[in-house]
Design goal:
It contains six helices and twelve strands. By secondary structure, the chain is an alpha+beta fold.
Length: about 300
């Protein structure tokens, strides 16, 4: 007569949970964070992101005169710390043995994966939500009107005010043309995307896509999507702050063509599962783990934002 052992249950459970978890992790799901970060794999726990002071413009060198040498100087240094995030689930042997429909086993799949994804969404969105008050590497708020430059008396201004409107979007787009490099010279950047809360999506589409000025009784052409700048694409993110009572939410214009500016998601490996059997309590445990950190690098570059108020 064949007999079973606890170790058999362990092996079968681990195999089954791994399969359920991996299937859930690979299942198509909308990941809002992917569209608003630059992912940087990093083996070290603390990643250092350094911007250098740009050289000033070239100058005429008269015959016999010496060339003026600019020093290579380090300007701003941003540190992003990789943190371990995790969530676990546990089930007793009785729950697993009598789980004929795999209801308990499936709790180790999609729910764990969802909990991990939601946390990442919140962490990435928090960088945007807090950007108006969080101090950046240059000593001022990450979105501010007074970012100092290393080799210039000029400042960068990536802060606009007010809710979504034709004039405010124009002001934000125009702000990109007055972003300077660290020497105070023109910096080639332009907005490519408008990032908003879903509650603002219909306003955004009406403002951007109307042939005439939206919400006005006039024959004035809507020029928001014209000009040398490429048309804005809309990104929605439900994890941005939104106040229902006042209908206020921050909004941002992003230059996704810049890979070394804006919000960075620093990662080490991917989502992983660890399992164990507690012999004392006859409980099966599984925990999902992931290492990452989110932050804003290159202060004053990559985005212009408004609190929406």
């Amino acid at each position: 007569m064949a007999t079973g052992r606890v170790s058999d249950t362990i092996r079968l459970t681990e195999a089954g949970v791994d399969e359920v978890f991996n299937r859930a992790a690979k299942a198509p799901s909308r990941k809002y964070w992917q569209a608003i970060v630059n992912v940087k794999p990093q083996k070290k726990q603390i990643g250092n992101y350094v911007t250098l002071g740009d050289f000033t413009s070239a100058e005429v060198v008269a015959e016999g005169d010496s060339i003026i040498y600019d020093k290579v100087i380090q300007n701003n240094e941003t540190h992003i710390t990789t943190v371990k995030y995790g969530k676990g689930a546990a089930a007793t042997m009785e729950q697993l043995d009598f789980d004929l429909e795999n209801i308990i086993k499936n709790r180790f799949g999609a729910p764990l994966v969802t909990a991990m994804q939601v946390k990442k969404e919140k962490e990435v969105a928090a960088v945007y939500n807090n950007a108006f008050t969080a101090t950046g590497a240059d000593g001022v708020a990450q979105i501010a009107d007074n970012h100092p430059l290393a080799n210039s008396v000029s400042v960068n201004d990536n802060l606009v005010t007010g809710a979504l409107s034709t004039e405010n979007i124009k002001a934000a787009k125009t702000r990109f043309t007055f972003i300077y490099n660290q020497a105070g010279d023109f910096f080639d950047t332009m907005p490519t995307h408008l990032l908003i809360h879903p509650a603002k999506q219909f306003q955004a589409f009406e403002l951007l896509n109307s042939a005439l000025l939206a919400w006005e009784l006039s024959n004035t052409k809507n020029s928001l999507q014209d000009g040398d700048m490429q048309p804005l694409k809309v990104l929605i993110n439900p994890y941005l702050t939104y106040t229902i009572a006042t209908d206020v939410s921050p909004w941002f214009l992003l230059d996704k063509g810049l890979t070394d500016a804006g919000v960075v998601l620093q990662t080490k490996g991917g989502l992983q599962l660890e399992t164990e059997w507690d012999f004392d309590t006859s409980a099966y445990k599984a925990k999902a783990l992931e290492y990452y950190g989110a932050g804003m690098v290159a202060p004053g570059y990559g985005l212009v934002g408004s609190t929406g108020a």
